[in-house]
Amino acid sequence: MKIDFSRYSSVKIGGVFEVEVLDSVREFAGVVVGGANNLLVSPTPPPLAILGEEFDYTKFENGILEIGGATNAAKIFKFARENHLGGFEILGGIPGRLGGLVTMNAGLKGLSIGDNLLFVIASGGEIAREDCGLGYRASDIKGVIFGAKFEIKREFDEDLARDLAQARRNQPKGASFGSCFANPENDSAGRLIEAAGLKGKRIGGCGFSEKHANFLINYGGGTFADATALINLAKKAVFERFGVKLREEVRII
Length: 253
Fold this sequence. Notes:
Blueprint: E1 2-4, H1 5-8, E2 16-22, E3 31-32, E4 39-40, E5 48-51, E6 58-61, E7 64-68, H2 73-82, H3 98-103, E8 107-108, E9 111-112, E10 117-122, E11 125-128, E12 145-151, H4 158-169, E13 175-179, H5 189-195, E14 202-203, E15 206-208, E16 215-218, H6 224-242, E17 251-252
Parallel strand pairs: 2-5, 3-5, 4-17
Antiparallel strand pairs: 1-2, 6-7, 7-12, 8-9, 10-11, 10-12, 13-16, 14-15, 15-16
């Protein structure tokens, strides 16, 4: 199948590329794009794939929730809320599919998708949580993620879900990756970018938001070159002024 990433990706940047559909658990020598919510696709990407509909599912049994890698965050959140399963309150109002959420250990306010993870179902077999290399907005999972299993330890917390949703409502709107950079330890990437004088800075059709400097927005017609120029500018400016090396949350392929 062909995907137009200028329409499919959350930042609305990219060309039209042939994408393989993975309909069984197997190896793939390329990049699985998922929902392309944290992805910046270059004009010359490696081989691309997307999981088939076989991997869009949720199954709860004996205190274990199994989720297919193609299942989107909204569906997971709805299933958890309706079945009183705690640990997924962070997924309210965010994009992404299970594979990408686990790969990036997505989260907010000190919580993450990996907190209750038991196993990842990958192309090479099941990988236990302790072998996933989970960190702040990162993991070391090898191979394609076709699903994952989570231990349910408590009931769904409506108050927590409401607080997290409110925090997300304060984030900038528009075509973006969400946060462009991971927060350095004991600091904020947005604060550093703003202090380096780049809040609101634009190159071509892209710019750092006037509302939150860690959000790179495609204001219309933004290109791969525009986005990477801004990313590299921020990394250079922050390092020169503060000696801090920013790490992208966005995956550039």
